[in-house]
Amino acid sequence: MVKLFEYMGKELFARYGVPVPAGKMVTGADEAAAVAAETGAPVVIKSQILSGKRGKGGGIKFADNPAEAREQAGGLLGTSVQGLPVEMLLVEEKLQIDHEFYLAITIDGAAKRPVLIASAQGGMDIEDVPAEYIIKEHIDIYLGIQPYLARDISRRLGLSGQLAREMQRLLPLLYRIFREKDAELVEINPLVQSGEKLVAADAKVTIDDDALYRQKDLPYVDERTPAERQAHALGLSYVQLDGNIAVMANGAGITMGTLDIIQHYGGRPANFLDAGGGTGMEATAKALEILLSTNPRVILINIFGGITRCDDVAAAFAKVKQERGIPVPVVIRLVGTNEEEGVRILRDNGIEAYQVMHEAAAKAVELARS
Amino acid sequence: MVAIIIDEKTNVIVQGVTGNQGLFHTRQMLAYGTRVVGGVSPGKGGREAAGVPVYDTVNAAVEAHQVDASVLFIPAPFAKDAALEAIDAGIKVVVIVTEHIPVHDELEIVAFARRRGTIVIGPNTFGIVSSGRCKIGIPPNQFFVPGHIGVVARSGTLTYEIVGNLTANGLGQSTVIGLGGDRVVGLSFVDVLEKFEKDPETRAVVLVGEIGGNAEEDAARFIKKMRKPVVAYIAGKSAPPGKRMGHAGAIIERGKGTFEGKVQALTAAGARVAVLPFEVPALIKEALG
């Protein structure tokens, strides 16, 4: 899942004909003043960070004229809001707010269908809106949002006349964005009623990272750490954590299980690294180097060889040890396909392999303490 | 039929049979005793692969053989097309091993399968094993022996670990099913638990879950009504919120899908929950008295 900054989401909305406030993303205070001058009206200045509750965190300011805009923007840039650095601001016209709606399209994994969520009580976190004010409509992916459904959602939102027509125009557009951009979430909160118009005052869009190969033109925010990026390029799944026991296992479930056992014995995992099933020698060696780059106290390798061959893993370990040296203790649990050969290679390199997963984990925790 | 979903009479085709993975696992499935009757690989019809005939399309394979199930070893960008092809050809069980399929493609596959009454196992699954009779997918052959424990899981290697522990403790398996690690998959825990509850061969069930989503909570509601005992293990106790732990579905979002929530729901429903994976066999023995 990758996320878009608000300004990226609004640019996307604008391209599809979803109304957004007039405005521009800026990175400097003078630029903010220039946008305010261009707008010729009061503006809102919004920190572009990937966090909800920006308003409460002091990340959203208002300005009545260019001078104020310069001052407010200068006060925000370079600070941090909700622990995130503010490097970009969205400066846009301040809307007249007559009412706030909530609209979102996302994926309901349990129902295995897209779901449209709408509420006439917008503006707050949807989790805080009482259930009776929330409309949830599952969508048949082979039908999409047909006009009849849009008419009925408008009715249930209490809309009539021009506003109802505008809502009926918006809903299929949002769905098109959701489908065409491989979105996991397209959310407008609030969708502001300003006179006879509906305007997206915010934009939250997240994209399926498995679909990025076919969404090459779409800008998004890369939140990964360097090690995470490096692992991803190797086709490995890696998440950085804050402990000192580096972990590699093969399979997402068993990797999670390994971290849990470490924690159970009082240790702290440094990462999640799923080397996958059937990972060859080269990728395993590179995975080891990623682990070493994070300077752990101990490395724990947990391999249940099915498609993954134990001798490949052992050979990768031997290669890295001989080529660059491994300055920290390594605990390896190795069972399954070609286990005997793997165990022999490790023994030749001064390592006794464990057979039982929790015994290996307990040893790693003990070594991390000493 | 005694077993669930597949048995020793299930005829299987392999889509993507001429690729590295397809070829390797076709040989492994044949070695396990699976009736692999053919393979599909566009443009390579008329050849043989791993000793089975290759066809250009699924329809061509279906015209030549009785086909009950298909398994896909197809790269993610082409998996949707291959799955729709199998479903449209009328095959009733489609196993999708491929990982990293875009979730929108998965929504389309599952919607089409629902319309046609097809069982989709996966995507991102190790497959299904009817112990001693038929294996469709990628698990290592040696750990799966016949017995009376049904296993249903979201993840692969962890399941091999647990099945290996069961086997080492003299507890064979009736059927082992991997739902798949993605957010949108064909079968839910409840779909499989219903089948295990009715299966005369299955005496107890092991549920291997993980953080993220609400599949385990939904399962708990069904477990409450079950007569057969259920032992559960949930991976991801130590996972931080907001981080996707390998599987697309393994993420705690907005405080939902937590380890604690799942354990609480399962325990309240009467399931025994193992803290560590190796505790599962002892809990099964305790449950069976």
Chart the SSEs and their pairings.
The complex is a heterodimer of chains A (370) and B (289).
Chain A: E1 2-3, H1 6-16, E2 23-26, H2 29-39, E3 43-47, E4 60-63, H3 66-76, E5 80-81, E6 84-85, E7 89-93, E8 99-108, E9 113-119, E10 134-138, H4 147-156, H5 161-180, E11 183-194, E12 197-200, E13 204-207, H6 226-233, E14 237-240, E15 245-249, H7 252-264, E16 271-274, H8 281-293, E17 298-305, H9 310-324, E18 330-336, H10 339-348, H11 357-369
Parallel strand pairs in A: 15-17, 17-18
Antiparallel strand pairs in A: 1-13, 2-7, 3-4, 3-7, 5-6, 8-9, 8-11, 9-10, 11-12, 11-13, 14-16
Helix pairs in contact in A: 2-3, 4-5, 8-9, 9-10
Chain B: E1 11-15, H1 20-32, E2 35-40, E3 48-49, E4 52-55, H2 58-64, E5 69-72, H3 76-88, E6 93-96, H4 103-116, E7 119-121, E8 127-130, E9 134-137, E10 146-153, H5 157-168, E11 173-178, H6 189-198, E12 204-210, H7 215-223, E13 230-235, H8 259-268, E14 272-274, H9 280-288
Helix pairs in contact in B: 3-4, 6-7, 7-8
The main sheet of chain B comes to: 7 strands, mixed
Q: Which term fits the overall shape of chain B?
A: globular
Report the helical percentage of chain B.
Answer: 25-40%
Rg from Cα of chain A: 26 Å
Assess the beta-strand content of chain B as a share of residues: 15-25%
SSE sequence of chain A, one letter per element: EHEHEEHEEEEEEHHEEEHEEHEHEHEHH
Going by helix content, strand content and strand pairing, the class of chain A is alpha+beta
Task: Give a verbal description of the structure.
The complex is a heterodimer of chains A (370) and B (289). Chain A has 370 residues and is α+β, with helices and mostly antiparallel strands. Chain A contains 11 helices and 18 strands. In chain A, strands 1, 8, 9, 10, 11, 12 and 13 form a 7-stranded antiparallel beta sheet that branches. In chain A, helix 4 (147-156) crosses helix 5 (161-180). The two termini of chain A are 39 Å apart. Chain B is built from 9 helices and 14 strands. Chain B is an alpha/beta fold and 289 residues long. In chain B, 34% of the residues lie in helices and 23% in strands. Chain B is globular, with a radius of gyration of 18 Å. The mean pLDDT of chain B is 95. In chain B, a hairpin with a 3-residue loop joins strand 8 (127-130) and strand 9. Classes of the chains: A alpha+beta (370), B alpha/beta (289). At the A-B interface, helix 7 of A face helix 4 and helix 5 of B.
